[in-house]
């Protein structure tokens, strides 16, 4: 089966899976796994572009800007997923990272496929909530989704930082955005089903964007999630382990300080490490604008003064 080169590569037929419906279950999952292994390589090749975009996004966020994802269908849902995981993982305000999907909230659970064709709607949706201080990442597997391109063009006119994430080369989205991230993963196992390799690649890129941004904003210490929100038993146990790892304290000591700190690992770590009370630990975080690494440095300087 030959490729139709007029179509984006994400819409073209995969010659390796032409007889997919005739294969056994082990054969199907084996070929899916083989195709998926190429995704990480494609993402690796895009690392310079990803790094450039993340650097710009971090600078905006350090100055008080917010991050917005905008997409349609699977791309929009992936943006919402990544945004929704930032508050519990990194303890940030829910407004710091926001996902927008064509068709609104109803499109999260129910496909509203024609919503992606309206470029003006994308422009309206984005201009209603962003400022020039913000960063907007448009997500489109094809790189040609009108809704997303309309949003990115309007965001750029407003003065926001703009980036585009697509899984094709020479995408129109790349032309519209300041930072172009293209991860061409090739034809899908099921022709045109971009929730597969393209979805995996997109998830990997979005993980890099927010995780790196949160690290640079001081929401991670070493490799520890010191800002994690202890909202259930599993996470409360994790907070205690984080405090132990960061301070070398035993479980009883760590748990006692976590309780004094109302479940805030950062406060508990500072209290143990510097032998201070909760009020002084809070002051250190306030002085450092909630950047944990900077709070540690502030207290180290205080102890030497």
UniProtKB/TrEMBL annotation:
Signal peptide: none annotated. InterPro entries: Etherase_MurQ, Glucokinase_regulatory_CS, MURQ/GCKR, SIS_dom, SIS_dom_sf. Keywords: Carbohydrate metabolism, Lyase. Pathway: Amino-sugar metabolism; N-acetylmuramate degradation. It comes from the Bacteria. It catalyses: N-acetyl-D-muramate 6-phosphate + H2O = N-acetyl-D-glucosamine 6-phosphate + (R)-lactate. Pfam families: GKRP_SIS_N. Its EC number is 4.2.1.126. GO terms for molecular function: carbohydrate derivative binding; carbon-oxygen lyase activity; ether hydrolase activity. NCBIfam families: N-acetylmuramic acid 6-phosphate etherase, PRK05441.1, PRK12570.1. Belongs to the GCKR-like family. MurNAc-6-P etherase subfamily. PANTHER family: GLUCOKINASE REGULATORY PROTEIN. Specifically catalyzes the cleavage of the D-lactyl ether substituent of MurNAc 6-phosphate, producing GlcNAc 6-phosphate and D-lactate. Homodimer. A lyase-type mechanism (elimination/hydration) is suggested for the cleavage of the lactyl ether bond of MurNAc 6-phosphate, with the formation of an alpha,beta-unsaturated aldehyde intermediate with (E)-stereochemistry, followed by the syn addition of water to give product. This is N-acetylmuramic acid 6-phosphate etherase. The lineage of its organism: Bacteria, Bacillati, Bacillota, Bacilli, Bacillales.
């Amino acid at each position: 089966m030959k490729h139709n080169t007029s179509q984006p590569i994400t819409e073209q037929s995969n010659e390796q899976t032409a007889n997919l419906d005739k294969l056994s279950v082990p054969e199907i999952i084996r070929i899916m796994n083989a195709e998926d292994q190429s995704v990480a390589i494609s993402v690796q090749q895009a690392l310079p572009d990803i790094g450039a975009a993340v650097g710009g996004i971090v600078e905006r966020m350090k100055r008080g800007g917010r991050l917005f994802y905008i997409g349609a269908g699977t791309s929009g849902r992936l943006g919402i997923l990544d945004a929704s995981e930032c508050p519990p993982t990194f303890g940030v305000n829910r407004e710091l990272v926001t996902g927008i999907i064509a068709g609104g909230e109803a499109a999260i659970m129910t496909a509203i496929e024609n919503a992606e064709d309206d470029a003006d709607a994308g422009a309206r949706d984005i201009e209603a909530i962003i400022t020039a201080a913000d960063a907007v990442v448009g997500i489109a597997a094809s790189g040609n989704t009108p809704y997303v391109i309309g949003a990115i063009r309007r965001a750029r006119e407003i003065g926001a930082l703009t980036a585009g994430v697509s899984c094709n080369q020479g995408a129109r989205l790349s032309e519209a955005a300041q930072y172009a991230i293209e991860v061409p993963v090739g034809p899908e196992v099921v022709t045109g089903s971009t929730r597969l390799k393209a979805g995996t690649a997109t998830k990997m890129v979005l993980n890099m964007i927010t995780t790196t941004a949160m690290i640079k904003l001081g929401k991670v210490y070493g490799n520890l999630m010191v800002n994690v929100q202890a909202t259930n038993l599993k996470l409360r146990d994790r907070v205690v382990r984080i405090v132990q790892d960061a301070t070398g304290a035993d479980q009883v000591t760590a748990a006692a300080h976590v309780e004094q700190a109302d479940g805030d690992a950062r406060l508990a770590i500072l209290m143990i490490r510097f032998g201070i009370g909760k009020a002084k630990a809070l002051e250190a975080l306030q002085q450092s604008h909630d950047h944990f690494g900077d709070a540690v440095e502030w207290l180290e300087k205080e102890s030497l003064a």
